[in-house]
Amino acid sequence: MTLKKLVKSIAATAAIVAATTSTSLAEFPERTIELIHPWGPGNAMSVSQLIAKAMGEELGVDMPVISTPGAAGTKGQKTAMSRPADGYTVFDGYVAPLVLQPILGNADWTYSDYKPLHAAVSNAFAIGGRVDETRWSNFEEMMEYGREHPGELRYSSGSRNNLPHMVIAKVLQSYGVVAQNVPYTQDGNAVKDLKSGVLDFSFINVGNYIQDKSAFNIMLVLSELPGAKASYDGAPSIADLDIDLGLSGLAPMGWTWWIIHKDTPDEVTDKLRTAMAAAMKREDVRAAIEKVGFVPLDWDHTEYDAVVGPVLDQLSAMGNALKWEEEELKKLN
Question: How many CB atoms lie within 10 A of CB 272?
Answer without folding.
Answer: 25
